[in-house]
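User: We ran a pulldown and think these components assemble together. Before we commit to crystallization trials, I'd like a predicted model of the whole complex to look at. Sequences follow.
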Amino acid sequence: MNPSRRQSLLSLLTLAALPASAQQARPLRVVASFSILADMLRNVGGDAVDVTALVGPDADAHVFEPSPADARRLADADLVVVNGLGFEGWLDRLIRASGYRGPVTIASAGIEPRKFGKEPDPHAWQDLTHARRYALNLRDALIKASPANTSYFEQRAAQYVAQLAALDHDVRNRFAAIPMEQRRVITSHDAFGYFGAAYGIKFLSAQGLSSHSEASASGVARLVEQIRREGVRAVFAENITDPRLVERIAREGGAVVGGRLYSDALSKPGTQADTYLKLFAHNAGAIAASLAPRRSSR
Ligand SMILES: [Zn+2]
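Assistant: Here's a predicted model for the assembly, 298 residues in total across the polymer chains.
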């Protein structure tokens, strides 16, 4: 082994052996726009950050209406982190109302967005390779806000990125066994375009990119027809939207709602999708289970 390579290996080993501890008296106050970003920030920031989410578990960021308490939270923040890609339409007004003048980090920066007509699709977190970009953007923003913790954030981000990569590998393996023509899923709103592109699944939805948009009668009829004609078995409700629309579509098509996907928010603490990694594993597992070829009934 050449000396420089040995040296870099040694420094890696030393780094790994260092106790992971934050280097400042007061944690950085970070406000995240929604629960998924807040969880990523806690993973990368550890004890060096105190994170709050404006839009909490099971809540819908598309239709969020900030309160005066949210403006006060922003006013006290050291750092504000948002998804970007048009997801937080209420943000600029909230920042103006709060008087916050600190940095605003766009977690999705550097990701080439999918487009819906002219509109970017904001749901980029629904692809684990994009989540890696989020984690690295968050790491860089935290380092800038608290340079004393540079190695702490680097170490934690590297661990988190490794977890994301391992899960991505598992998810790909899980879907590999499912025939392409079966990979069709119906959901309430178009939150899974990135998931579909990453893992080769076609998502059909009753509403558009925002849960706020109305489902058209013709759109609903088309989905019902698709369930009947193509035998789409995977129909899912979402944690942030009213399940009645997909329930109706499933019923009229002769299918059953196969459970719930976590689209734009985590579930409540202590429940099955209360971290981003758990959310993703749950969604992928539920979709794969509903698409898997059925064994003949006994
Ligand atoms: Zn959405």
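DSSP finds ten helices and ten strands in the chain. That may be worth checking against your pulldown data before setting up trials.

User: Thanks, that helps.
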